[in-house]
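[09:14] KT: can someone run the structure on this one? pasting the chain below
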Amino acid sequence: MSLIVSNIRLPFDVPEEQALREARRLTGLTSDETQAAVSRASIDARRGKIFRVYSVRLDAPIDEKAFAEKLQMPFVRYKPDEKPAVPCGSRRLEHRPVVVGLGPAGLFAAYTLAKHGYAPLVLERGGDLDARDRAVDAFWSGGALDGESNIQFGEGGAGAYSDGKLTTRIGDPLCDAVLETLAAHGAPADIVKKAKPHVGTDILKDVVRAMRRDIIANGGEVRFHTRLTGVLVQNGALRGVQAGGDDIACERAVLAIGHSARDTFDALHQNGVYFEPKAFSVGVRIEHLQSEIDRALYGKYAGHPLLPPAEYNLSRREGGRACYSFCMCPGGVVVAAQSEQDTVVTNGMSYHARDGKNANAALAVSVDPADFDDGTPFGGVALQRRIERAAFQQTGSYRAPCQRVGDFLAGRPSTRAGAVQPSYPLGVQFGEAAASLPAFAQDMLRDSLPYFGRKIRGFDAADALLTGPETRTSSPVRIKRGDDLFGLGCAGLIPCGEGAGYAGGIMSAAVDGIRAAHRIMEEFAPVLD
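[09:31] RB: done, structure tokens below
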């Protein structure tokens, strides 16, 4: 239980201790009686001035709730201990629980179950991170695409090849548990107090490996190269899963298969698992020189050693449709994110240092089920595939279509790069970056770029680069579940994370994974007691 003093705005270059002193001054609590620590810090570069904005936690030997109510200050609030109790049921599990997928949702579900004695069996279609790195590096060097171990599939899921961004809007108390777990397994300790924490793909991979080792050390088992091919259902209840050529008996399974497991979607649908179409987004990646983004947002302070590489978040709505920046990677690279043959898919990634020359982000346009209704739950999957295959046909290879922003706005194909060089690892073909997208998405991008240029100077600069397409922003389907978290028509199966349509990013997926584990734990006793 603590007092939280928020919105303490100080010049970005003053020591952190000044925020602690300011929190004490505002509340009238002395340093002798009060422990103070920064709980959140962020950069505010709006309106031409740069501040660091702090929230400070104060722990004092007083009735903190009554004290906060007496102060009646909007920036001082009482924060109770919100750590959810760890559930523990009494029923006996006949078989150990199964977790399908080792992305953020599956990783945290399995880790939570293992930590509390439930000895989960984890099934992952891809390889471990070492094998996965080899497969990805080979593909990016011009080799064959591995359909099972790639940017989308394998230990760590799609999040392992990203910026490792840990921002979320869900406001769940379990978010703190996720950050603390990541920090305990090798993530930078300061992620627990940054308003926009990130790990970086280089460090995140080691964190994932460490968590997997803990799962095994606590009685769990992880089987790589083991793809789910079906579920066994009897009288509307889960009796087992089919994977790797085996029937595996279980009463409870967490289904955390990720947003790109299209073949698994089909197999589960044939088994009677209920799917429905879901809105998602498609677009392109935009690249700028990071130094230009820094200059636009930090002005004369660009390059200051106390300032992180600048990042942005842009959005625009028009006519019921949205265009927005997504997965912004300061100092990052555009990556090849294919999981199917003869397709082109882009994504973004950056390392912990974020010291690359370019900044990149998705520019995504919302797609509603009405845009792709084909009478099945999988019209969105079909639209994604059409876009990805059209891009491959456009270049005749795994190279990505690329175009300068100035040419895109003028309606002409590009023939070369300007000041910004493309970072996509398999090479690009200059022409029309968005040609594979639906016409409404192209129009929305063309209308939105000048609008964003008015928000961030130079965002629509002629030499900025568009590389496409970006299609895997989120799952195009939802595996619907009830209030009990079970999938409709299959009691005991818990759809979870991004692939099931219940998360958007590492943090929310991890929290959903913990919730799925707690659903099993509240009903059953540990198997290792």
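[09:33] KT: thanks! The mean pLDDT is 94.
[09:34] RB: yep, looked fine to me
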